[in-house]
């Protein structure tokens, strides 16, 4: 018997690696062995493949079948290898002609149909980058796979039809079997039309301005205030202020959500920034990523290029909050587990919302508050100093006054504010593009204190705050980033003393109120 050889892709995080699948049919007792560090779901492929082939009219050999997945040292998981193993076995039995450099990624049903798998977009991206543009997937994954530039995608619904196209004898093939077509999702309302609008926010002039600055410079935000003041309303409207994603960013975001498999297969790239709002009982694995075997992306990675909103932030476990410190600086999450290491992009805007105390009534004079001073300190102390030092805008959100609450909708909605944000982003890209940067939040300290340093007299208030310990060195740089964003929104060439003073006020507002 000849040796059958096909190709597939193994994903480790968002990185894909070409896997060579070898199949050999021996002269010994019947058996089916899969080598190459398969996980439990991949080991179960033996029975899926045998049944699928039988029901497709091309039963497998009764002799010993050995499938080897190369490189053997790379852990492999999931059902996406089913099709490549099946085609390698059929090739070893001379039931189909050689498949060349085609890459096969699909799960097999017992009836012979090809089922979609998650992570198809990053898998096809890896195949194309490795020089394997010809990809065979399940029909349900074909649209998503076709989003990858340069990929030549073939979508099939049954193993029999695929085997026929690769030269199998049609006499015994179950070509008349046509599985029921999956009903496509009905086109719902336009998401942009359903997005929360800023004109629904009553009052909160300072909050609206803070979100505009945050969106313009991609800054992190802490909103502190009593319950019902509008913190959540403001946070929910931040994604609507952000510009659409470019081609590269949209591909990254769509790949992460394809791997997460939280939604149906993508048919277009995700152009709008994502929004993640996990519950405060979420674990570290849910926020950061993890799980058994190779780690999966968490909410922080799913919020890449978008917004991660943590409501009731002090109610989260402190270790969960402190785990966000790494991606806030690097824009990437590297998760180490015994089965391997996975790296996921996580360049998101963090929005924290917090009450002033456990009962939430310590705002203003706090006459109705039942919390002791120690309880208040312990409550807010769950937000560690190193974490808060990475949050650029720290704003105290006050209760809405009756005069504002009774007014009609605000004149300025999301569209008007987003237009100013877009103009500010264009100015930043023109200034920072030669440095390989996109937004003010990404500018390193050496650049802020070097070629982009404002005039010495303008930073006097910052220098004084640093000397008396009111600011850390990191906080100093973050105030300068805020000042540049304020200058971009105002149409100024560089920040002056007014912008630096406003930036310092935005950073210290919540701390002063506390």
Main beta sheet: 5 strands, parallel
Query: Could you tell me the strand content as a percent range?
Result: 15-25%
Estimated structural class? alpha/beta
Order of the strands making up the biggest sheet: 11-14-17-10-18
Total of domains: 2
- CATH-scheme architecture of the largest domain: 3-Layer(aba) Sandwich
The rounded distance between the terminal residues' Cα atoms is 77 Å
CATH fold title of the largest domain: Rossmann fold
Helix content: 25-40%
Can you give a write-up of this model?
By secondary structure, the chain is α/β, with parallel strands linked by helices. It folds into two domains: 4-165, Ribosomal Protein S5, domain 2 (2-Layer Sandwich), CATH 3.30.230.10; 191-435, Rossmann fold, CATH 3.40.50. It contains 23 helices and 18 strands. The strands form six sheets. It has a five-stranded parallel β-sheet. It has a four-stranded mixed β-sheet with strand order 1-2-4-3. It is elongated. The termini are far apart.
Quick structural gist:
The protein has 514 residues and is an alpha/beta fold. The protein folds into two domains: 4-165, 2-Layer Sandwich (Ribosomal Protein S5, domain 2), CATH 3.30.230.10; 191-435, P-loop containing nucleotide triphosphate hydrolases (Rossmann fold, 3-Layer(aba) Sandwich).
């Amino acid at each position: 018997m000849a040796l059958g050889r096909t190709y597939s892709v193994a994903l480790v995080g968002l990185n894909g690696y070409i896997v060579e699948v070898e199949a050999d049919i021996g002269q010994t007792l019947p058996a089916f062995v899969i080598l190459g560090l398969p996980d439990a779901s991949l080991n179960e492929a033996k029975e899926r493949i045998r049944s699928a082939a039988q029901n497709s009219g091309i039963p497998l050999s009764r002799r010993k079948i050995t499938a080897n997945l190369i490189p053997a040292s790379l852990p492999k998981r999931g059902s996406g290898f089913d099709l490549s193993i099946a085609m390698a076995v059929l090739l070893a039995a001379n039931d189909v002609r050689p498949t060349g450099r085609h890459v096969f990624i699909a799960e097999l049903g017992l009836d012979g149909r090809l089922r979609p798998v998650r992570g198809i977009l990053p898998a096809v991206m890896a195949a194309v980058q490795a020089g394997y543009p010809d990809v065979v997937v399940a029909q349900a994954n074909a649209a998503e796979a076709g989003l990858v530039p340069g990929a030549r995608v073939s979508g099939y619904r049954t193993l029999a039809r695929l085997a026929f196209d690769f030269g199998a004898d049609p006499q015994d093939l179950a070509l008349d079997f046509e599985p029921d077509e999956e009903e496509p999702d009905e086109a719902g309302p336009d998401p942009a039309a359903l997005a929360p609008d800023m004109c629904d926010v009553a009052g909160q002039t300072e909050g609206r301005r803070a979100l505009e600055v945050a969106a313009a410079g991609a800054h992190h935000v802490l909103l502190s205030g009593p319950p019902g003041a509008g913190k959540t309303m403001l946070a929910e409207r931040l994604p609507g202020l952000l510009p659409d994603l470019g081609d590269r960013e949209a591909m990254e975001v769509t790949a992460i959500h394809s791997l997460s498999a939280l939604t149906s297969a993508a048919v277009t790239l995700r152009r709008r920034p994502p929004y993640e709002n996990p519950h405060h009982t979420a674990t570290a694995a849910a926020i950061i990523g993890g799980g058994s075997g190779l780690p999966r992306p968490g909410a922080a990675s799913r919020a890449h290029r978008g917004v991660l909103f943590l409501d009731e932030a002090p109610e989260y476990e402190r270790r969960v909050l402190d785990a966000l410190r790494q991606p806030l600086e690097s824009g990437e999450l590297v998760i180490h587990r015994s089965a391997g290491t996975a790296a996921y992009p996580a360049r998101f805007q963090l929005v924290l919302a917090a009450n002033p105390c456990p009962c939430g009534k310590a705002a203003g004079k706090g006459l109705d508050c039942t919390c002791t001073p120690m309880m208040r300190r312990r409550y807010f102390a769950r937000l560690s100093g190193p974490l808060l030092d990475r949050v650029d805008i720290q704003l105290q959100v006050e209760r809405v006054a009756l005069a504002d609450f009774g007014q009609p909708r605000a004149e300025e909605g999301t569209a008007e504010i987003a237009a100013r944000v877009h103009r500010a982003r264009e100015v930043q890209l023109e200034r920072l593009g030669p440095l390989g940067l996109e937004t003010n939040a990404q500018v390193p300290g050496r650049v802020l204190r070097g070629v982009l340093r404002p005039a010495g007299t303008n930073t006097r208030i910052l220098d004084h705050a640093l000397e008396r310990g009111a600011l850390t060195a990191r906080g100093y740089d973050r105030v300068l980033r805020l000042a540049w964003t304020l200058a971009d929104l105002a149409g100024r060439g560089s920040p002056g003393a007014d912008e630096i003073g406003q930036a310092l006020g935005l950073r210290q507002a919540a701390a002063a109120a506390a």
